[in-house]
Amino acid sequence: xxxxxxxxxxxxxxxxxxxxxxxxxxxxxxxxxxxxxxxxxxxxxxxxxxxxxxxxxxxxxxxxxxxxxxxxxxxxxxxxxxxxxxxxxxxxxxxxxxxxxxxxxxxxxxxxxxxxxxxxxxxxxx
Length: 126
Description:
Distance between the termini: 40 Å
Radius of gyration: 13 Å
Largest sheet: 7 strands, mixed
Helix content: under 10%
Order of helices and strands: EEEEEEEEEEE
Number of strands: 11
Structural class: mainly beta
Low-confidence stretches: none
Number of helices: 0
Strand content: over 45%
């Protein structure tokens, strides 16, 4: 089991950047694939990015491709999500998820993750 805590959300102007972080507890974090999802009010949760347990593979949804970059530092039990050129439609609650990896590939679907953090709020003003 792993516990995940997100941070780094806030208010940013359209076109701006933010870096979200996900810090995990537990000694086996390096064995976990990690993903990010987001949810805007009144909308379904959207899975947006993922990274394999060793950082060798990544996944991005088409809606964010080219604007987001996911990375991890297993020595610090941390996964970062660098976001740039933010739009008002990027606003929402951003969640970090984890699950023990079963391959070298990033896990690119919401249902593949068994643990999620509480989320960090991202607001983008126009």
